[in-house]
Design a protein that fits this description.
The structure holds two protein chains of two kinds. By secondary structure, chain A is mainly β. Chain A has one domain. Chain A is built from one helix and nine strands. In chain A, strands 1, 2, 3, 4, 5, 6, 7, 8 and 9 form a nine-stranded antiparallel beta sheet that branches. In chain A, a hairpin with a 4-residue loop joins β2 and β3. The radius of gyration of chain A is 17 Å and the shape is globular. Chain A starts with a strand and ends in a 14-residue tail after the last helix. By secondary structure, chain B is of the alpha+beta class. In chain B, strands 1-2 form a two-stranded antiparallel sheet. The longest helix of chain B is centred in the middle third of the chain and has 22 residues. The chains are: A mainly beta, B alpha+beta. β2 of chain A pairs antiparallel with β2 of chain B.
Chain lengths: ~160, ~100
């Protein structure tokens, strides 16, 4: 569990409702935990994929006023869509929020393996940010209205 | 899956539905397959008034079979597409640690 946090940026179709034909494409980050590692066998080669549990982006993910991304690992969604290619995954760590046990803070791990240093007991945190890439709004009042929640019909393409 | 403190590789026969879903996902994420995905989507949308979402469902349901036939009839010269089109083994190698 400790080392199996993953995140994936994916472009998805967002539908306002099931009857909506005017979907918009948007890129959002999904957060999950690897459940199983598979190598799918095509006789001549194998393709590594991860079977994951994904946190529902509508109810289980939010960015707090300090810019931390918080996830509720009990809010599982996308049960039809478990797999990702191993190369698409980025490792993240989840740390329980001491002030609210329900939420875990996402700590962004190192994205590229460090070629000079194969000792994985040393993890450099200096360049890592647990903050989301999106900075917290400087002017709360003006910003709140802009954050519309939209329903997602997800497809990871 | 609970961590047992051992690392191991196992070959497990997985639920067929799940393997097919994994197979479809893999095809959707391999660049060379993209032209076929687009072609099939086009075929599905011609003469159809179904909305975007149900077209996508239909496409996902029928693509594997169509892709297999398509690659078969063309005597495809791209080696890995042939193997991809034939489909994966239902025995999956899994790793636990």
């Amino acid at each position: 569990m400790q080392n199996s946090g993953v995140t994936l940026e994916a472009e998805s179709m967002h539908f306002a409702s099931s009857k909506d034909n005017n979907y918009v494409m948007a890129t959002i980050s999904y957060y999950g935990v690897i459940e199983e590692i598979w190598e799918v066998d095509y006789v001549k080669f194998r393709v590594p994929i991860f079977k994951c549990k994904w946190v529902d982006s509508n109810t289980g993910v939010h960015v707090d006023e300090l810019g931390f991304t918080l996830v509720d690992l009990a809010k599982i969604g996308y049960k039809e869509d478990l797999f990702i290619m191993a190369y698409q995954a980025k490792q993240v760590f989840y740390v329980k929020d001491p002030s609210n046990e329900r939420w875990s803070i996402v700590i962004q791990g190192k994205n590229e393996p460090d070629v000079d240093n194969h000792d994985d007991s040393i993890v450099k945190y200096a360049n890592n940010s647990s903050l989301s890439r999106q900075l917290p709004p400087m002017n709360e009042e003006n910003d709140v209205g802009c954050r519309n929640r939209i329903m997602t019909g997800r497809s990871k393409r | 899956m609970k961590a047992k403190g051992t690392r191991g590789v196992r070959v497990i026969q997985k639920d067929q539905q799940q393997v097919l879903r994994a197979h479809l996902y893999i095809l959707n994420n391999i660049g060379d397959v993209l032209p076929f995905l687009n072609e099939h989507k086009m075929l599905k949308s011609v003469n159809s008034r179904a909305n975007e979402k149900s077209l996508l469902n239909e496409h996902n349901k029928t693509f594997l079979k169509w892709f297999k036939e398509k690659i078969g009839e063309r005597a495809c010269d791209v080696e890995h597409l042939k193997w991809l089109a034939r489909g994966s083994n239902f025995d999956v190698i899994t790793w636990s640690g």
